[in-house]
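Team,

Forwarding the record for the chain on the shared tracking sheet. I've put the sequence and predicted structure together so nobody has to dig through attachments.
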Amino acid sequence: MEWLTFALLALVATMVVFVPGAALAYGLGLRRMLLWAFAPAAGVGALAVTATALGLVGVAWSPLTAVAGAALLAIAAWVIALVLKAPDRTPAVRARRWVIPAMIVGALAGAVRMAMIIGEPDNVSQTNDATFHLNALRYIADTSSASSLDVLGTTGSSGFYPAAWHAVASLTMQLTGADVATAANATSLAIAGPIWTVSLAGLVWATTHSGRVTAVAALLAPTLFAFPFHMLDFGVLYPYALALAILPGVVAVLVGSGGGTPEGQGSRSGALRAALRTTLVSLVGLAALGLSQPSALLVWVLAAVAWGLVRICAPWGTLPTRQRLWRAIACAALVAGAGVVWLAMVAISSDNLWPAVRNLPDAAARMLVNGSVGAGPSIVLSVFAIIGFVIALRIARLRWLALFGVALALLVVVAQSVQNDTVRMLLSPWYADPRRFTAMMPLVVIPFAAIGVVALMRWERWRNARAGVLAGLAIVLLVYVETVAWAVINPIEHRYGETEVSYLSADERALLDDLDQFVEPDARIIGNPSAGAAFGYGLSGADVVPRTWAMPGGNDFRVLADELVDLNTDADVCPAVRALGVEYVLDFGESDEGPGKWDMPGMTGFVDGDGFDLVVERGAASLWRITGCD
């Protein structure tokens, strides 16, 4: 029953995205597969924009106001599309009957794989960033604002923070009554399953115009660990995972905008109206990406440049000299514009960068076999991806995808192997994190592999179409078998539940779950955030500080971190206690060494100190009232 309930929660999280998204996409004039491909991006964008707008006017964020805001956006989109009267240019696709069953299977497989990684529905992601994200969900529930301009209030800060993921997860929490951890996990299942699968399938549909290739891509969508699973395990990078999951649908709209109308057909006014609608839809998609994780905008820029260069320059050899000149200028302007956008993103990005992790040959080899992360390489999938890449180079309609793939592959290899400071600064929108770049590769590897598999299915030496289909299904099954085999042979330790390096032990989690029962509603509790106390606010609703794993600024906290246990012998402690307004302290022992872990000797050992009264303990975890400063 627990897992059945969790599955229903994941379904709710999926509907939170798809229902408003489908309405907005329909209002924008999209039909058939492009509608469903764009629905996740449209839904995320509608919710994030609505949440921010409601925050600005002081209206509470709730399922009712979210629906009202999304409905208004859908109506506005319908009116604009009606005025434009743009012709429907959705590509005509062969073998459509294969697509829906394949998307269902791929979505279910992705959700199941993510559920296996999580382990239990209410497990907490034992990672640095999870503290902020879970606390932000609690903060949204307390303040009734999921605005990207308000969510930093979780930590007492202000400014912009992309809160689209938080809007989706908080609605899931409100609609189901789930706790913050379970709502976050249900949202992860929605991302890893239907959102990623449908969005990616839509991109393949718009690019290849083939139902078979689309169906194979949908079936292969959950087979690479690099995305979406690694981003929802390592980190944990909820916003980035959501942004990359909806990205294919945004690219699909651009690529498929004129897919049903051959070059030279249709009126000039019709082409202009279609271009305007494509621009409008793309802007909605870009808003969704920017409010999810802005670095994903640059991935879209790479895809758009690849598509634009191939579309502009492909007929180069058949054009007169004057047209060649204008197209050369257009290509140069496109690349220059992308460069300006990239540098602008670099200028506003953090200079706290990750180092390179491999040498060049190792990085290139792992990229080719998709073995940079996870239990092992994906040999079968990689072989067919290489075949599909070669095919894409030879077919004009697919050539942009090949160029996009080359660009992503170069970024991955550079991010993993080049330590030059200037180069790494150019990668700062992703913190120069090799893992975030590796997560981009499935955007092209899965489509290439699907193209390669279908090429085998159409091999002239098959006796009939049924034999080709069986061969294709056998290849897909073999990819699944290899994925499972690596997981059995070389199991990796996931970041959910208690491990040797996790933040929360079972005792600490049990104490935090019940913490609000032992303190007054307005009481403030302090603790070592890197020993697990940073999860306190999100899991309990009690005012536990700090609310992120990072060391807070200011001397008062530093004094307590080093000397709180010596309250009766250190004159600096009580002024710091009063300045921070803390009344209780969590003793979760000493923090382990490692990234994001801080040694705070003043926040443990109270059993041997004076000025502290034991309130409750759960095994090795305990809560103490600070009485020595009364």
